[in-house]
Write a structure and sequence with these properties.
The protein is built from eight helices and no strands. The protein has 145 residues and is mainly α. It has a single domain, classed as Up-down Bundle (AhpD-like). α3 packs antiparallel against α4, α3 runs parallel beside α8 and α6 crosses α8.
């Protein structure tokens, strides 16, 4: 069992800030499917088992198929994801690995062609937020129970 500091206990104001981002996303126009695909894919990439557990359960509760969740890590190799979802997943990977060259102009243009500016901004905020949660989860060794 980890004895690492709990952000919730040690810095409740910071934790409240993260919850405000989640509240914003809840009120956004993002579909449940888009939100959970982003959260699950980023959590896979970041190795956050805690977030993976939560968001796969949420996705299933929202009607996502177990088949799509099982192949999500190999989304490029299937035909199970729509064009919009493929762009969202590629953008999620680019944001998660932003240090490896950022988001290509080609990918960003594809996203701009598919989504209006508000929806695209909400997608990006979802990606940024789950990456922050993943870093909290991994850094403090949160475990799924």
């Amino acid at each position: 069992m980890s004895n690492r500091t709990s952000i919730y206990t040690a810095a409740p104001k910071a934790y409240e800030g993260m919850l405000k981002l989640e509240e914003y996303l809840t009120k956004s126009s993002l579909t449940a499917t888009h939100k959970e695909l982003i959260k699950i894919r980023a959590s896979q990439l970041n190795g956050c088992g805690y977030c993976l557990d939560i968001h796969t359960q949420d996705a299933l509760a929202n009607g996502e198929s177990s088949r799509r969740l099982l192949v999500l890590a190999g989304w490029r190799e299937t035909e199970l994801f729509t064009v919009e979802e493929q762009v969202i997943l590629a953008l999620t990977e680019a944001v998660t690995f932003i240090h490896e060259g950022g988001i290509s102009d080609e990918l960003y243009l594809r996203a701009e062609q598919l989504f209006d500016p508000t929806y695209l901004a909400q997608l990006l905020m979802c990606m940024v937020t789950i990456n922050a949660w993943n870093r909290i989860g991994v850094a403090t060794e949160l475990k799924a129970k």
